[in-house]
Amino acid sequence: MKKLIALVTAIVMLLGTCALADTLTMGTNAAFPPYEFYEDETIVGIDAEIAAAICEKLGYDLEILDMNFDGLISAVASGKIDFAMAGMTKTPEREQNVNFTITYAIGVQSIIVPENSPITCLDDLYVEGASYKIGVQQGTTGDIYCSDDFGADAVSQFLTGADAVAALVAGKLDCVVIDNNPAKAFVEANEGLKLLDTDYSEEEYAIAIALENTELLEKINAALEELIEDGTIAEIIAYYIPVEE
Ligand code: GLN
After folding, report:
1. Which of 29, 144, 199, 238 is the most buried (most CB within 10 A)?
2. Whole-Å CA distances, 129 to 59, 118, 126, 160
3. Out of 13-17, 23-27, 152-156, 181-185, which region has the weakest mean confidence (pLDDT)?
């Protein structure tokens, strides 16, 4: 009998340890610096670090899956991943398929052009008769706005922001429309490009979670609130986006 009790106790303890080490799977598209990018084989960046801080607070291990941005919402909705964090903008359309947490960062759509480009501001893209080739990352807000405003024929979609920028560098595009901080990182990493600041659209970044998983939504929101309040989020953002003097 004693042996049986010891065995049951051991099994219960083992299960307890396993429960503690539960894993949350985050989906992202790791070609979007400074939010997510590869450093050697590891995905790092603002989102990866905030996710790690949330998981640490909640007692989960974190696993990060690199996927196409365009597939993230359906991966969340189908339960393939527990949450998506990818510099993802909260939009009413996406909110029909997933819940979003509170906002943890702000993004603004920006335009990258070659240094000698005739495009000097957003309005230039709207000029009557202009037929610029605009590169975007497929399924992003930049893609949706540009396709709406300039028509599908003017817009070339790429699987990653990095691919769109490579096409711009290769002379295949006139500009790339993408979020401001990745835009800055791409301009710094590639010679001959410059950034046009616009107020095309200011957007709120949040974490996407399955509609039915309200328990995880509440947990992550509580952790995020604490991390915002104690300055951790600001510290992580300041590390990756140093304030310009
Ligand atoms: N913020 C944009 C969006 O949510 C782009 C995000 C991204 O490319 N990772 O659509």
Report:
1. 29
2. 57, 14, 8, 29
3. 13-17
Q: Which residues pair with 83 in a beta bridge?
A: 26, 209
**pLDDT digit string, tens, across residues 12-59:** 455 544 444 599 999 999 999 999 999 999 999 999 999 999 999 999
Q: What is the architecture of the domain spanning 3-104+206-240?
A: 3-Layer(aba) Sandwich (3.40)
Please give the model's pTM, rounded to 2 decimal places.
0.88
What is the rounded CA–CA span in Å between residue 230 and residue 54?
13
- Which amino acid type is present at position 93? E
User: What is the atom index within ligand 1 of the atom nearest the CA of 205?
Assistant: 1
Cα(145) to ligand 1 centroid in Å equals: 12
Q: To test the ligand 1 pocket, which listed residue (32, 88, 95) has its Cβ within 8 A of the most ligand atoms?
A: 88
- Quote the tokens at residue 205: 């970044």
Q: How far is the CA of 2 from the centre of ligand 1 (A)?
A: 59
Q: Where are the domains of the chain?
A: 3-104+206-240, 107-202
Task: For domain 107-202, give the fold.
Answer: D-Maltodextrin-Binding Protein; domain 2 (3.40.190)
